[in-house]
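Quick one: structure tokens for this chain, please?
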Amino acid sequence: MDSPSSSSAATMGVPSEGAVGNVNGNEVGTTASFAGYMETRGVREARVLASELCRHMYTLGWFSGTGGSITIKVHDDSIPKPRQLVVISPSGVQKERMVPEDMYVLSSDGFILSTPPLKPYPHKPPKCTDCTPLFMKVANKFFPHNFLQITHMEMIKGIKGHGYHDELVVPIIENTAHEAELVESLTEAITAYPKTTAVLVRNHGVYVWGDSWISAKTQVSVLRKFL
């Protein structure tokens, strides 16, 4: 993904080990005005990268079953900034078998522009992850909470903007029955702790993001050591 014409920001939803007409509140948009953009190299690479990361994290044991999800915001010089697209992994698909065609493509305002093709039995119909509203909040920089405080740990250096002598604060919010219901508390947590790049959801898992997929992946690895 490291090329002059395209780069990406990434969001990852990592489940805890215990734990389109209208899809998850997002209306399917008209693809005509976005058709050219969806075929750009940046979008193609984001699809490939998202599927590769899903498979890799499954292999590492960070994603289990069909849990976990990845979102990549595509920064492409051929796409005006207000119209830059978002690639999101689907729900209910075996992570170790993910392919680029399984990815959803959304507009910057949350309209689903491209859905995965139907697959024969025993595969279920494609479904965009229930985490979509949360990912879109983070992707569009929406930056009484409990929090996790970590100090004097060597690996803190792996978290963006932190060094050994810094205090790492990860806000904790309460879980809900449906991921979409977390939007308000997630937004409040990010607003209260603007330096954070992760939010821990009690009895659910952790949402982590970065200005590139490498940054997000590194931070997931570090946070798993702490959590």
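The two ends are 29 Å apart (CA to CA).
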